Amino acid sequence: MIHHLKGQLVEKNPTHVVIDCNGVGYFVHISLHTFALVGNDSEAIKLYTHLQIKEDSHTLYGFVEKSERELFRLLISVSGVGASTARTMLSSLEPKQIMEAIASGDAATVQSIKGIGAKTAQRVILDLKDKVLKVFGEGEVFVSQSNTNKEEALSALETLGFARKPAEKVVDRIMKQATDPTVETIIKLALKNL
């Protein structure tokens, strides 16, 4: 309904801004990512918006980047992820980090966000993996091969009976020392160190 707002920045807070558009002040909810990109008071500003209409409220969310708004819309399309949770996700991690985590199936990164449990993280990845790659293109979402190798190695180590946390510490150490190791190399080196 409201595609974007362009006007003077009247008020700036980490969670919201007020934009004066020809004498009408719009209260717009923002993420910390957008907060970092917004200028200072009384500057001209343009935010891409998403209007959420509920029975008891009309809430406007604003984003400096169109891609962040698209990611926000994808996130709220997932069952169990509301606008507040999506905004928290975009405040906790950079949009690019979220896209990469979803595209590579990195549930641990998604789950590291406050308020996101294991089931929700899995649902976000399951529902959005293909959509993220389709909307943003594989060129924009960089899925590092080493991250996929790391996840496969951790999964194998868990299957072998090792606890995730200690295994992850060892695998991280291996990832820092070796340049682009294969899954087999990671598992062999991890087994020596566990």
UniProtKB/TrEMBL annotation:
Protein localization: Cytoplasm
Entry GO CC: cytoplasm; Holliday junction helicase complex; Holliday junction resolvase complex
Broad class of where this protein is predominantly found: cytoplasm
GO molecular function: ATP binding; four-way junction DNA binding; four-way junction helicase activity
A GO BP entry: DNA repair
Renumbered residue ranges of the record's region Domain I: 1-64
Residue ranges occupied by any Helix-hairpin-helix DNA-binding motif class domain in the UniProt entry: 73-92, 108-127
Keywords for this protein: Cytoplasm, DNA damage, DNA recombination, DNA repair, DNA-binding
DNA repair keyword on record: yes
Similarity annotation: Belongs to the RuvA family.
HAMAP family: DNA_HJ_migration_RuvA
Stored NCBIfam families: ruvA
Function of the molecule: The RuvA-RuvB-RuvC complex processes Holliday junction (HJ) DNA during genetic recombination and DNA repair, while the RuvA-RuvB complex plays an important role in the rescue of blocked DNA replication forks via replication fork reversal (RFR). RuvA specifically binds to HJ cruciform DNA, conferring on it an open structure. The RuvB hexamer acts as an ATP-dependent pump, pulling dsDNA into and through the RuvAB complex. HJ branch migration allows RuvC to scan DNA until it finds its consensus sequence, where it cleaves and resolves the cruciform DNA.
Quaternary assembly: Homotetramer. Forms an RuvA(8)-RuvB(12)-Holliday junction (HJ) complex. HJ DNA is sandwiched between 2 RuvA tetramers; dsDNA enters through RuvA and exits via RuvB. An RuvB hexamer assembles on each DNA strand where it exits the tetramer. Each RuvB hexamer is contacted by two RuvA subunits (via domain III) on 2 adjacent RuvB subunits; this complex drives branch migration. In the full resolvosome a probable DNA-RuvA(4)-RuvB(12)-RuvC(2) complex forms which resolves the HJ.
This protein's name: Holliday junction branch migration complex subunit RuvA
Biological source species: Antarcticibacterium flavum
